[in-house]
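Researcher: Please generate the 3D structure of the following complex. Treat every line as part of one assembly.
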Amino acid sequence: EVQLVESGGGLVQPGGSLRLSCAASGFRLSDHYMDWVRQAPGKGLEWVGRTRNKRYNYTTEYAASVRGRFTVSRDDSKSSVYLQMNSLKTEDTAVYHCARLLYSSGYYVDYWGRGTLVTVSS
Amino acid sequence: DIQMTQSPSSLSASVGDRVTITCRASQGISNYLAWFQQKPGKAPKSLIYAASSLQSGVPSRFSGSGSGTDFTLTINKLQPEDFATYYCQQHNSYPLTFGGGTRVEIK
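Model: Done. Output below.
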């Protein structure tokens, strides 16, 4: 059974840092692209960033709102994906989900994690 | 960035109804369009990819259509468990973008 479990969320002050983890199980992480998607309280979904798989040299993509502040990384040997968040702003407050992508004429999310809440507040 | 516009933003329907949600892209995205369902406090669930392909395990009452800029999610014979918020997402180009969501409520 595919499972994605996020952790590492919490309360952090503006300007602070936090590292989120996504533990993957039930599949071989190294085969897959992985995304981070967030949802601010009462708002819609916002794509944050992506890590490609080893075949594509683990390259990454980011939303403009987080580029230069957030870094997506992964450790396939630990079946884990990470989101390092620096210089946090109040508008980064959200539930952060990791998501697995599957290739079928394009890369599409097929599984989501339940998310971890990040609150940026003084 | 490609803007995704969903309509309506909310709708009321009864069990057994047929529901149609539309998603319009600000520029052509071929068929690189996915649909997701989300219930309060839960993770999103993937329903459809490539505009019209059903994800494994998704009931056949869900269907998707469209190509280019205009897309539709249809739910036939609405069931009680279908009351949720639905989002479209384009996968044509970065940054990936979502529609604003359509909340399906019980009439």
